[in-house]
């Protein structure tokens, strides 16, 4: 397709109307201001795409192109990277379809004025080599990013091999920051690092793989040192991941000294706060070979012997994170060797939490050793009798049921219920008691325990000097009866002891058909507290309540009652203009 046809398509699609629709009023207005202030640079038009640099707080590159029956867009600003049609894209589109020559610094280049890339290439080919060198060096002197690209190209491909000192300097230049990198500058910052990583990837895939290994490890250390100085929104992690992938590929290609590699991997995995080389035993096994893995194991076991065992009452010291990393390494070695007892021994070195007992029990269960799995689960519950990790309790109750020890399972679920006494704990107890075919008696006991807890809470509230704390109510009982499908019992509990506002509303919805006056009483009582929120969301909730009130009264022929109630509500809250507007536009039928 020729250029005139492309331009015709662009003119048909990129219009003021489309730009306003895509960007919204606020971004469109700001984009129009940018266009009028001459912030749009020279617009390049190629095939069905226009692009230009737009000057805001920083310089960003915006692009708009034909995409199917609509248009696509991109911008290097933070909003553009999140997929938002930003003011920079608006400014570009307006400068192209509605150029303001009298105020804009540059309009779109016309078809005759535009020099195609092929024309630029031909011009360059006709120039003297020394002149081109001067042109490139001149541009490098005012563009740090371009200068770094030149250094990378020159350092990796010299006549005498890679210039490692220069490449380290380029890594320093790309990664090191002075102060803090704010969010709006992160993209440009990581782009600079990505170009360095691209070069390292090329080296790793070439005869320079050996040199690449040292440089990648150097780059990893630099990124780790700098990452906390970057307002990272997930941009730095992928850089670390990619560097590690390239490192592994370079090691496979270069076959470095295995023991030396093992020593470096172990040191970095142990001390890295960002998980660099985590799981090296498995991922580098083919590179390390038997002698490398043996060296890795020797280093790990030497360190592991210095780690003191921890019991349930022990407090973690300042070296805890490092010990945890070493434990992961020892676990990887045990799993790699397939030695279950070695893996358990590592886990058993730190029994300061319920999760350790659970993990050991799960290891034995997966290995088919139910006796040991049960023993370790029971040890964990005994070591942490109060507020036990619910996952450990559930594991043990499941094993009790599997062994036919249903009463033991329910007894354990009862302890969890007493500690919780909320709906989830009640449902958990019910599930286990039904398996034991003893739910009716446990249900009565559970309900009685909840009632006793509410009564004790009310007595304590009456004796408190300060009354700002809410008094216990019957919300838990209301929830339980609703869950059991008994709304009448739930209503009685709410009337007897009160409940949370949202439960009152749920009760009203369930009673509206057969007991409309009960529901009306709840909805009207909730009206004032709802409006007291004094924001649009609160007003929308109030209108929703009014619709429910009308929906209950209208079938009963009580429309005048609703009209009077609405009039009184308007009179009381006439100063709340947004509420009045919503009421004016509300439809009650």
Question: Which structural traits does this protein have?
Answer:
4 strands; 589 residues; four-stranded antiparallel beta sheet; mainly alpha
Query: Between the first and last Cα atoms, what is the distance in angstroms?
Result: 58 Å
Which class do the helix and strand fractions yield? Answer: mainly alpha
In terms of DSSP E residues, the strand content is: under 5%
Task: Give the number of DSSP strands.
Answer: 4
Q: What's the overall geometry?
A: flat
Number of helices: 29
The strands making up the biggest β-sheet line up spatially as: 1-2-3-4
Main sheet characteristics:
4 strands, antiparallel
Alpha carbon gyration radius? 35 Å
Low-confidence stretches: 102-108
Relative helix content: 55-70%
Mean pLDDT comes to 88
How would you sum up this structure, described in words?
The chain is mainly alpha-helical. Among the domains are: 3-115, no CATH class; 512-589, no CATH class. It is 68% helix and 4% strand. The protein is built from 29 helices and 4 strands. The protein has helices at residues 3-13, 16-36, 78-81, 87-97, 117-125, 129-142, 144-156, 164-175, 183-204, 209-226, 236-254, 258-271, 280-283, 285-304, 320-337, 340-348, 354-366, 370-383, 390-402, 406-420, 423-435, 439-463, 475-483, 487-497, 501-511, 516-531, 536-553, 559-572, 577-585; strands at residues 44-46, 49-55, 59-67, 70-75. A 4-stranded antiparallel beta sheet has the order 1-2-3-4. It starts with a helix and ends with a helix. Mean pLDDT is 88; it is low at 102-108.
